[in-house]
């Protein structure tokens, strides 16, 4: 299981010491795409240490993360595309994702999370997985002259991300129910950089960064469409793998 680095809220330890203790209690990197593994997790560690220093709770960090993400999503649907707008959207989504990685790390630092906190975190993630692409759909429809048939791309992306998220959570629940190790328990498993790079096109963090191009729809949409195809292909392959894993679980 993931190590817990308990420290009482309000501890006087320095930021560097907090970062060192968090580094020693990271979740396993099995299956993590490159951005999440090498950028977002360290960013989340920094945010978790800062939040600990000022006395924030994990649920407060989750709420701040949701606020940044909702702001970015709202901009996509309500504001005409421009270069500053695209930069603002990307910044909001990247910060929201970094804080999303921080709440769990902060919970471990404080002695372990609660079921309610985990529920809140997953509910926010589930809402994000669908609403982001629906906002892209609305923004492209309202503010661009894109052929309506291409609006099926964000609609399909919404379905793919929602099903992928549900499948990932369901896999964990069934593994735990039948006594098989979950991803969170595989802390000793080493995964090469190659696999992380291979799954990079499916990384939410990479998707968030691509919104710097949203102010230039002619550049943004092809990149967005390629990421959608990568995500759909990953889901198709992963679904077969997941089903075989579920078949091997004890009845």
Give a description of the structure:
It is globular and about 50 Å long. The protein has a single domain, classed as Four Helix Bundle (Hemerythrin (Met), subunit A), CATH 1.20.120.1760. It is built from nine helices and no strands.
Can I get a quick summary?
With 251 residues, this protein is an all-alpha fold. Helices cover 71% and strands 0% of the residues.
Count of spatially separate domains: 1
What is the end-to-end distance? 24 Å
Judging from the principal axes of the Cα atoms, what is the shape? globular
The share of residues in helices is over 70%
CATH-assigned fold name: Four Helix Bundle (Hemerythrin (Met), subunit A)
Number of strands: 0
SSE layout and pairing:
Blueprint: H1 15-23, H2 34-54, H3 58-78, H4 83-109, H5 115-143, H6 152-177, H7 193-198, H8 204-210, H9 217-248
Q: What are the salient characteristics of this protein?
A:
251 residues, mainly alpha, Four Helix Bundle (Hemerythrin (Met), subunit A)
């Amino acid at each position: 299981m993931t190590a817990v680095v308990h420290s009482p809220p309000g501890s006087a330890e320095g930021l560097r010491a907090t970062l060192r203790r968090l580094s020693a209690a990271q979740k396993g990197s099995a299956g993590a795409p490159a951005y999440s593994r090498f950028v977002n997790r360290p960013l989340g560690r920094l945010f978790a240490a800062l939040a600990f220093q000022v006395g924030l709770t994990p649920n407060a960090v989750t709420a701040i993360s949701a606020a940044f993400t909702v702001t970015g999503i709202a901009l996509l649907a309500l504001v005409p595309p421009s270069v500053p707008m695209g930069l603002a959207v990307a910044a909001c989504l990247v910060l929201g994702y970094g804080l999303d990685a921080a709440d769990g790390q902060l919970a471990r630092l404080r002695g372990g999370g609660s079921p309610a906190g985990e529920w809140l975190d997953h509910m926010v993630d589930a809402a994000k997985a669908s609403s982001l692409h629906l906002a892209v759909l609305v923004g492209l429809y309202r503010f661009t002259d894109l052929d309506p048939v291409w609006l099926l791309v964000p609609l399909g992306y919404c379905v793919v991300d929602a099903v992928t998220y549900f499948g990932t959570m369901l896999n964990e629940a069934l593994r735990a129910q039948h006594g098989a190790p979950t991803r969170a328990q595989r802390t000793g498993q080493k995964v090469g950089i190659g696999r992380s790079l291979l799954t990079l096109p499916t990384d939410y963090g990479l998707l968030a960064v691509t919104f710097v191009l949203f102010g230039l729809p002619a550049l943004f949409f092809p990149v967005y469409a390629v990421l959608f195809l990568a995500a759909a292909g990953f889901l198709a392959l992963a679904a077969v793998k997941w089903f075989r894993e579920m078949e091997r679980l004890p009845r």
